[in-house]
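INFO batch 0412 | record 1 of 1 | parsing
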Amino acid sequence: MRRALRLLAVGVLALPLLGLHPGAGAVGFGVNVEWVGHVPLNNDSAGARRLGNYFYLTTSTALHIYDITDPVNPRRVGLLGRPQSPQFAQEDVDTNGKILLIGNSVIDVTDKANPRVISTHGGSSHTITCVLECTWAYASNGAIVDLRDPAKPRTSDRRWTQGMPVGGSHDVTEIAPGLIVTSSDPVLFLDARLDPERPILIGKSPKRNRFTHSNLWPHQGQDKFLLVGGESGASVGCTDASAHFVTMDATSGWPKYDLNGDLVRQGSFTPIAEYRVRAGTFNDGHPPVNQWCAHWFETHPSYRDGGLVAMAWYEHGVRMLNVKADGRIEERGWFVPLAGSTSGVYWITDRIMYTTDYQRSFDILRYTGPLPA
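INFO prediction complete | emitting tokens
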């Protein structure tokens, strides 16, 4: 008991790797993933963003900024109280290193030790994403915010959903400056480069009748796969149709134009393969019951046309997935923390990951398995 309590009391850590085996001091179970340490300075962590040597993390009460120059010893350098609704804390934190967006707040993070709110706007939503180097923002509910003067933001009277086949999106992802993929059904590919208040629909997926939570199209849309994740509520074994991770063929994702620059054909995305967790036991990494299923994911630094993906899966912890050259998906490992509900996972190096968690604050993990060739 003393040993367990002593470990929990340590803040930022280079601790014995106790995550693989049950017993005194154990913090979870894993295959090809080991526990390095725990940062207990915040809990109910919905999401974060790594940019350079800084890690920006939100909770329902505050923004935390960590210096991650030493990846296994993150050091908190900034803190800003910013209460949010606990179940709807900003999950997909976005920043250009100068301003950061949480809800309806624009936060100056130029001085990492002294983040401060410089303005608010009318585009608050579950997630909000920087567009064109944070000079604009797209909210999941369709709102568009002009941030060219971040101290005086303007919420547009137009919405990016106008004229689109969706009324909103759980999240939007800017894959390259002004080029946006929406986490909606269907998934949309939008071009906001010419006029951010009037984006053009240049591609889409088929409608799948599933909730789409997040997406990534690596290497600024030059990768041959669009990666899409879902999310669902409580179920035994995560059997809901939306509890999934999917690869889509993106080789036809870019549109075609004629010599006059007019759109001839929209891009298209076609589902290839799907990964789901199974019901099992906690010890084999597959808890039988989950409050929620499937959440944020991130590609490994070496990922290109396939490779390793780390995915947060609530009570199923972190799933290590390998996207093969043909788009099929295989599991390469996992880590399930004790008393955890993992919300996000972020590659810090080619081996070190940080996980945010609705129960545990954030953990530091190391991937020990083989990297895909």
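INFO post-check: The radius of gyration is 20 Å.
INFO record closed
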